[in-house]
Amino acid sequence: MPFLPHVLGMAASMLKVLEFVRAVTVDPVFVWAPQGSWVAVDAVLGVLLANNFSVAALATVLRLPEVKEQRLLRGAVACLGPGLEADPDTRKLLAAVLMTLKRRVVEYDKWVGDESGVMALDSAAVEALRYEMAAAHPLQTFSHKAYSSGWLLPPATVASYRSVYSEHTDQWDDYLRTGIWAPGLPALRPMPCFSGAATANTDLPDCNHLMGTEKTHTGGTVGAFCTCSHPKCLGVIVLTGAESQRMPLEFVAQLFVRTPLTIIYDFACATLKSALVRLPWIARRVAPKCNRFHWGENHTDCSAALSPNSYASMDAINTSSCEERNALSRRQQHHLRQMKQDQFITFTVYQQAVSNAVAIHRDSKAFGAAHKWPEWYRRLHVDVVGTIVHSDRR
Question: What per-residue confidence (pLDDT) applies to 42?
């Protein structure tokens, strides 16, 4: 800051480039390749490496939907446009940065010992591995590769899980015993301890968004909600301790047959960090993003790559719907805090079940209504695949 003399630009364009540089420096490369797709980066690389570069060709690429989705990338490239035309070395430098992002994924795969993807085992080996994990001591650790081979890659079913963990078959509908209320989402996979215990040196994020600091009340519950126009509660999980970055990952890994494309969580920065070292398979396929309220409130050392405002597809998503659903609990906290733990859990489950019934009723009433979003807009921008996770403490 400011740009070199041969790179044309204004103060606003410098900020766009600075946001891109910060995201490249701070965040993992997976934010530039959602679900493993490098379409946006490859499109920009193609025009940068072309023999006959022109601003017109660059503008055509920047109008592609895949590139428009990545606002940090598109904004930086657009602001550098005059400089890219005036100086070939700037084009080579930017192209080198983008190619380095792709090479970084290869290096990461090599680091986790998974160069060509987790190798699928035959049915006998999978069954043996599952029983080994079920019979292990609760504190015995397993590698992420063993967990992916045993539970993530093969088709997961309720029957296969219960056949291995048969001692729990009488508890699945009793949320006071299991600590999980998720109607329609029975447990499909276990969540064992992974190699590498969490420590302050490995898991303490640089972000200023502090969690686990509440000491005066019990853990409470955490709720997961969809991102439909009338959000529904997908599940309630009882917290045994403080809220952590692992909860969204465990909820998705244990209960979802198909992982959602996006997880919106107020601690998304640390959630992605935790997934990179323990669940690489999920880190590649699920994009954690912070909700807008917490992003502007207390995320001070995170890049804009984790903000929903950096992605065009997130424009119509109400990232604070979980806060809205839990607003009723806040108005009732004066007597909720006087309840015993089991009474508090039962009340929370009842409240979310009633709210789901109301949301489903509103869906049926609002469908096709003229004062609501057009059907094409609702399908494209509102009723998208996603999950929001939020906690509610006692």
Answer: 94
* Dist CA 133 CA 13 (whole Å): 53
CA distance 122 to 49: 44
All structural domains of the chain with their residue ranges: 11-111, 213-392
Provide CB contacts within 8 A for 324, sequence distance 6+.
231, 318
Residue 142, exposed/middle/buried by CB under 10 A (0-12, 13-18, 19+)?
A: middle
Nearest of 355, 225, 72, 146 to residue 237 by alpha carbon: 225
Alpha carbon 327 to its chain centroid, in Å, reads 23
Residue 227: C-alpha distances to residues 97, 112, 236, 385, 389 (Å): 34, 32, 16, 7, 10
Q: What is the DSSP letter of 6?
A: T
Q: Looking at this protein, which amino acid is placed at residue 186?
A: P
Inter-residue contact 18 to 80 (CB < 8 Å) = no
* pLDDT value, residue 374: 57
For 123, list phi and psi in degrees, rounded to 5. Answer: -60, -35
What's the pLDDT score for residue 60?
Answer: 93
pLDDT of residue 43: 94
Q: What is the rounded distance in angstroms from the CA atom of residue 268 to the CA atom of residue 245?
A: 7
CB atoms within 10 A of CB 128: 13
Alpha-carbon distance of 354 to 35, in angstroms, equals: 35
Cα distance between residue 63 and residue 52, in whole Å: 19
Low-confidence ranges of the chain (pLDDT < 50): 115, 197, 200, 204, 370-371, 391-394
Residue 187 contacts residue 254 (beta carbons within 8 Å): yes
Per-residue pLDDT, 98: 93
pLDDT recorded at residue 370: 47
Sheet architecture: strand order including 233-238: 180-181, 233-238, 221-226, 387-392, 262-265, 287-289
Q: Residue 31's pLDDT is what? A: 85
Q: What is the CA angle 258-264-266, rounded to 5?
A: 140
